[in-house]
């Protein structure tokens, strides 16, 4: 999204709050943008930064063409800093380095902006350090914190930010966007259940790795039903070699979650809500016979717990082995 006008189409209330502040010259010293992955948090942060620094903006809209806008887009503007988790968390040392950078005079303007992605991953020490920075900025500074889970952020930090809520995207509208890009209806339904980011969804739809990931997920679910004695062999020989990176492992669990939800929906007579399986698919009947509603509810919680363990940096092999044992149990 290149403009506030475009962003308003998917986040009308959040965009209006922000643009009203810009028009009135009442930019907050700190914002907390909270919303699900893909709801436009990064795009809003980028637009705000360009709006603050662009010399050729029209109303609230940055020109997008000037030297400043292009440098901010490329991440090479010295007065805009982006901070991301180092591994699984944002550490105290990263906040200290940010403070050090901001102790210097702004190089090309009278102010500075910093954006913290995944703000909920800050360690306790990093959070306390940021709190002091929010309270005592060295110069005119705008902080933009991005999070999917604001409850994990210190209340004292939240209280010093203006919170902007970004609403979940309309899945039907997103599916139509994907189909307009040439994605099949069935794939669009599945992809819209996994991500709200158009570029990511299109990339997955064209990626053989993702197609193989979906295939392995279906094989794993069926192995639980048809050959449970081979499940550990499948995990080590087929599943783990394919899902190597942390993001891939989380995506694999997301796919599993959707598959078991589909089986539960079939139990409940909600076949129209399924995203992985096709209604009246033969193998779906066998899976419904294998897993009771009570068992499926337990499995869904187990998969969610496994995702949480991955985010806590638990060994992924151990996570999958434990999940397998728990599902079989």
TrEMBL record:
<keyword id="KW-0235">DNA replication</keyword>
<keyword id="KW-0548">Nucleotidyltransferase</keyword>
<dbReference type="InterPro" id="IPR004622">
    <property type="entry name" value="DNA_pol_HolB"/>
</dbReference>
<dbReference type="InterPro" id="IPR050238">
    <property type="entry name" value="DNA_Rep/Repair_Clamp_Loader"/>
</dbReference>
<dbReference type="InterPro" id="IPR015199">
    <property type="entry name" value="DNA_pol_III_delta_C"/>
</dbReference>
<keyword id="KW-0239">DNA-directed DNA polymerase</keyword>
<dbReference type="GO" id="GO:0003887">
    <property type="term" value="F:DNA-directed DNA polymerase activity"/>
</dbReference>
<feature type="domain" description="DNA polymerase III delta subunit C-terminal">
    <location>
        <begin position="212"/>
        <end position="327"/>
    </location>
</feature>
<keyword id="KW-0808">Transferase</keyword>
<dbReference type="Pfam" id="PF13177">
    <property type="entry name" value="DNA_pol3_delta2"/>
</dbReference>
<protein>
    <recommendedName>
        <fullName>DNA polymerase III subunit delta'</fullName>
        <ecNumber>2.7.7.7</ecNumber>
    </recommendedName>
</protein>
<dbReference type="Pfam" id="PF09115">
    <property type="entry name" value="DNApol3-delta_C"/>
</dbReference>
<dbReference type="InterPro" id="IPR027417">
    <property type="entry name" value="P-loop_NTPase"/>
</dbReference>
């Amino acid at each position: 999204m290149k403009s506030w006008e475009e962003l308003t189409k998917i986040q009308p209330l959040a965009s209006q709050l922000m643009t009203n502040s810009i028009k009135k010259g009442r930019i907050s010293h700190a914002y907390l943008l909270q919303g699900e992955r893909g709801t436009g948090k990064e795009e809003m942060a980028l637009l705000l930064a360009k709006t603050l620094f662009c010399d050729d903006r029209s109303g609230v809209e940055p020109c997008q063409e000037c030297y400043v806008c292009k440098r901010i887009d490329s991440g090479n503007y010295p007065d805009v800093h982006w901070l991301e988790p180092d591994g699984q968390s944002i550490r105290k040392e990263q906040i200290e380095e940010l403070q050090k950078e901001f102790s210097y005079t702004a190089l090309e303007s009278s102010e500075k902006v910093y954006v913290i992605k995944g703000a909920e991953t800050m360690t306790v020490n990093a959070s306390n350090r940021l709190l002091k920075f929010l309270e005592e900025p060295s110069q005119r500074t705008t902080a933009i914190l991005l999070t999917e889970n604001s409850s994990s952020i210190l209340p004292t930090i939240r209280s010093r930010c203006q919170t902007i809520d970004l609403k979940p995207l309309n899945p039907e509208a997103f599916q139509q966007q994907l189909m307009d890009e040439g994605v099949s209806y069935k794939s669009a339904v599945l992809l819209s259940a996994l991500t709200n980011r158009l570029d990511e969804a299109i990339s997955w739809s064209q990626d053989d790795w993702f197609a193989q990931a979906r295939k392995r997920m279906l094989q794993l679910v069926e192995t639980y039903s048809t050959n449970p004695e081979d499940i550990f062999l499948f995990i080590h020989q087929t599943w783990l070699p394919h899902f190597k990176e942390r993001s891939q492992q989380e995506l694999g669990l997301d796919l599993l979650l959707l598959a078991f939800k589909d089986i539960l929906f079939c139990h409940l007579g909600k076949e129209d809500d399924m995203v992985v399986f096709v209604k009246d698919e033969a193998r779906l009947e066998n899976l419904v016979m294998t897993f009771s509603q009570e068992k499926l509810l337990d499995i869904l919680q187990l998969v969610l717990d496994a995702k949480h363990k991955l985010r806590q940096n638990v060994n992924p092999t151990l996570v999958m082995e434990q999940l397998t044992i728990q599902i079989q149990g």
